[in-house]
Design brief:
alpha/beta; Carbamate kinase; 8-stranded mixed beta sheet
């Protein structure tokens, strides 16, 4: 592990705020000290920091997380001030600068903004600055929010092509049963990120955060597409950072089992919202999975949703299983008119032809059978 050059470290709300009692500044200082030690070993660090809403709740005197989006945004705005100050002041003790990077789903769904975010993060790392990334809770709506910082951390790992995603939580890792009510529960030390069995043992969310073990397992699957190893471990002991750097194995490690996808495919697979659905016949499914083909309209049996040309749509088989996703070449109304048609018939049906494919293979990501993990 000493050869690893870039880690994304995500720290959850319960850890950062000492289970809602306010920012745990002493623990943050210890984490910072260990991150500086990682940098001295040649490991670049990107922090994905939860805690803005939780810190805002503490400052505003709220004990229960509100349901109202506007109240959550207000809490985030208040809490983000203290969160950023806490990180910056502690890294400054080591003569290091931090940079606040706030992202929304739209930032990573738009190709130009995705590339801009990537360039900014890589430039900051090149300057020796420690980026502190968070979801931009003050402006997001339900339609564009990531929903949890585990997912955001995985997308950032893809964005910067990290070697490791480390998710620090208040649990030791992923167990084969709920350790809170099962004394015989065993810690899962290592598994493949794509293994469906680990998703079945993941639990729900906590009081302060939006993510539980289920979102951490999903994050591991997302990070695996760029070849990143994901470790879920307890952040109560910051020594976990040094232990991992020394090649030890605390927590649960999720391994990628496919070669890394190229950068464009990573971006395509990073879309969390689909604008519509295309239902494919068995022949089209086989061609996509086995032959790396483009999706032709003749293989589409039905079209759902309202979408425009260039938007992201899901591809499903006739049993409802997600096959992949991609950028569509025709809007929904035209797609409905040309489904089941041969490419040579498109111009006759529509009076024009943008492309002979409904989705070109360069704009298409195909998932492994039985999972949501994209194939390389």
């Amino acid at each position: 592990m000493a050869d690893r050059q870039r880690w994304v470290i995500k720290i959850g709300s319960a850890l950062l705020t000492n289970d809602g009692k306010g920012l745990d500044c002493a623990l943050m200082q210890t984490w910072v000290d260990r991150m500086v030690a990682l940098r001295e070993r040649g490991i670049e660090v990107v922090i994905v920091s939860s805690g803005a809403v939780a810190e805002g709740m503490t400052r505003l005197g709220w004990s229960v997380r509100p349901d109202s989006v506007h109240e959550l945004q207000a809490a985030a705005a208040v809490g983000q001030m203290g969160l950023v100050q806490a990180w910056e002041s502690r890294f400054q003790q080591h003569q290091l600068h931090t940079a606040q990077v706030l992202l929304t789903h739209d930032d990573l769904s738009d190709r130009k903004r995705y590339l801009n975010a990537r360039s900014t993060l890589l430039t900051l790392l090149g300057f020796g600055v420690v980026p502190v990334v968070n979801e931009n809770d003050t402006v997001v709506t339900d339609e564009i929010r990531f929903g949890d910082n585990d997912t955001l951390a995985a997308l950032v790992a893809n964005l910067v092509e990290a070697d490791r995603l480390l998710i620090l939580t208040d649990q030791e890792g992923l167990f084969d049963a709920d350790p809170r009510n099962n004394a015989d529960a065993n810690l899962i030390r290592e598994a493949q990120a794509s293994d469906p069995a680990i998703a079945r043992v993941a639990g729900g969310g906590g009081l302060l955060g939006r993510g539980g073990m289920a979102t951490k397992v999903r994050a591991g699957k997302l990070a695996a597409r760029s070849g990143a190893i994901t470790t879920i471990a307890s952040g109560r002991s910051p020594e976990v950072l040094i232990e991992l750097a020394d090649g030890q194995g605390p927590g649960t490690t999720l391994l990628p089992d496919t070669s890394p996808m190229n950068a464009r495919k990573q971006w395509l697979a990073g879309h969390l919202q689909m604008r519509g659905r295309l239902v494919l016949d068995a022949g089209a499914v086989a061609r996509l999975r086995d032959g790396g083909s483009s999706l032709l309209p003749v293989g589409v049996v039905d079209v759902f949703g309202q979408f425009s040309r260039g938007e992201m749509v899901a591809c499903e088989d006739q049993q409802g299983e997600r096959i992949g996703c991609g950028l569509v070449n025709y809007d929904a109304a035209d797609a409905r008119r040309i489904c089941r048609k041969k490419s040579a018939e498109i111009a006759e049906v529509l009076g024009f032809m943008n492309e002979e494919e409904l989705i070109h293979r360069d704009n298409l990501v195909v998932f492994d059978a039985g999972s949501l993990t994209p194939e390389a």
